Amino acid sequence: MGKQAEFRFSELDLDALATATGRVAIVAGLDGALGKAGRRVSRLTKGALKRLVESESFEKASEGDVITLGYPTGMEAEAVDVLKLTRTAKLDVARKAGVALAKAKGDAALTLSLGNLPRASEIIMGLALRLYTFTPHKTEDETAQGGIHILCPKPGELEAACASPLAVARGVHFTRDLVNEPANVLTTTEFANRLEALSAHGVNVKTLDEPELAKLGMHSLLSVGHGSASPSKVVVMEWMGGEKGAAPVALVGKGVVFDTGGISLKPAGGMEDMTMDMGGAGTVAGAMQALAERKAKANVVGIVGLVENMPSDRATRPGDVVTSMKGDTIEVINTDAEGRLVLCDIMWHVQEAYKPAAMVDLATLTGAIVVALGHENTGVFSNDDMLCNSFLKAAAAEGEGAWRMPMGRGYADMLKSRIADVKNVGSRPGGAVTAAEFLKRFVKEGQPWIHLDIAGTASVKAETAYAPTGATGWGVMALNRLVADNYEG
Ligand code: BES
Ligand code: MN
Ligand code: ZN
User: DSSP alpha helices (H): ranges in 7-47?
Assistant: First the structure.
């Protein structure tokens, strides 16, 4: 698993600041005002800290930035990190301040004095989100992640306030671990096993195997995995923390553990990135863990389709016609447009079995959405303005980029098949939208639904606001907030 930091909370002990090892961090206001800990550090360093907060570089720094005083005299610490922040800092500024502290921290131990800042828990969440590295396949003995010692007036209260944010951060890390894992390790079977482990958090997990999927009529999903030695699986995760009998929110995830393109084989260059093609399923898994760990008072069901898209003598051919669980026949023009073939069956199943209040699907679905939005925003498609606006609001509050895309009849018409009810691809123009229109065929009348195309946001090659390079865990925080703000209590 990725490395995670330990948090410890206690009351400020001014005398301990001199002997703390690793790094010490304190907060200073925009005008350089210091609290108790800052004044003590200033005294210990014979005024060096005071000079720092009165300096031009401090004045020029933005709110949320960290300015470092290296190897301070009078202290055992290797550095003092000064966080420039006001008491009225906005949530995202506080979180990004935590991120800045995490970057300065590296593997060192950190003693962080937060006074009674109202946004203390958000700073801590930012720290937790950014303190992540994926190391299970590094054989070199790496230094352990130094712990974080938080100093504040009411440690018990702050620790309690951090319980939920830290549960969500662990959910994000679970998603990143799954998305970063190579496909020879995270096979469909291994993925299902890791999801089964969510039962330790009170999630009811059930795995459906190929014979069960065939019995349900999921021949579209099954057609994607035909070429692979790994068996296709669907995993259903129930967290029923809400009112008994209340319709759940359904989270639906594409879990293609590796996408070669199948017989419509992808080019070699960059194909290794398709190990992240289970990002939708990974995000659903992380969100379920976060909701369960913070004991959300809501009913949420997660469903993921786990398959591997491989070419072989048994693989689906371009031109094959398959029958979905809904009953619609699909002409598979391109075996590389496999995600929609997986989603359509699990979307149908979750609607039949649960009549969800809202359904949100997540998928690394199209290269076209990456062309349209880059890596800054997930493409959002919806048939319901109210649900969609609630989601966009939740994503914005969490600092996760999301941008609504259009849909419409003209796009849907591009999927007309000569011999079947629908074909699985249109032509190149509007590729992300025609993919969404394909999915919409499998959304029942009156079912509020959002489709999130996370092809550009699930895993990236440059660090993002909250994550190092690689898997981001995009969406766990937004989904958690969507549930918290609209379906709880
Ligand atoms: N998994 C890919 C989409 C993808 C592309 C994810 C880039 C992450 C980064 C998907 O299955 C796919 O291959 N889509 C095709 C669809 C096309 C054949 C209509 C694509 O986008 O090229
Ligand atoms: Mn594909
Ligand atoms: Zn794919």
Answer: 36-44
Residue 2 has pLDDT above 70, yes or no: no
What number does the ligand 1 atom closest to the CA of 364 have? Answer: 6
Q: Are 377 and 460 in contact (CB under 8 A)?
A: no
User: Are the CB atoms for 411 and 319 separated by under 8 Å?
Assistant: no
Q: Which of 338, 365, 378 gets mutated to test ligand 1 (max ligand atoms within 8 A of its CB)? A: 365
Kindly report, residue by residue over 21-56, the tens digit of the pLDDT.
Answer: 999 999 999 999 999 999 999 999 999 999 999 999
Determine contact, residues 198/285, Cβ cutoff 8 Å: yes
Question: Which string of b and e fits 392-406 if b means at least 16 CB within 10 Å?
Answer: bbbbeebbbbbebbe
pLDDT given for residue 97 in this prediction = 97
Q: Which domains does the chain have, with CATH numbers?
A: 7-152 (3.40.220.10), 169-486 (3.40.630.10)
Q: Is 340 a catalytic residue?
A: yes
Q: Is 96 labeled as catalytic in the residue annotation?
A: no
Q: What is the pLDDT of residues 190-241, one digit of tens each?
A: 999 999 999 999 999 999 999 999 999 999 999 999 999 999 999 999 999 9
Tokens 């995760």 found at: 237
- For a ligand 1 pocket test, name from 254, 336, 338 the mutation site with the most ligand atoms within 8 angstroms of its C-beta: 336
- Burial string for 380-390 (b: 16+ CB within 10 Å, else e) reads bbbbbeebbeb
Contact 284, 302 (CB under 8 A): yes
Does the pTM surpass 0.85? The reply is yes
What count of other Cβ atoms lies within 10 Å of the Cβ of residue 358? 24
- Residue 259 dihedral angles phi and psi, to the nearest 5°: -120, 95
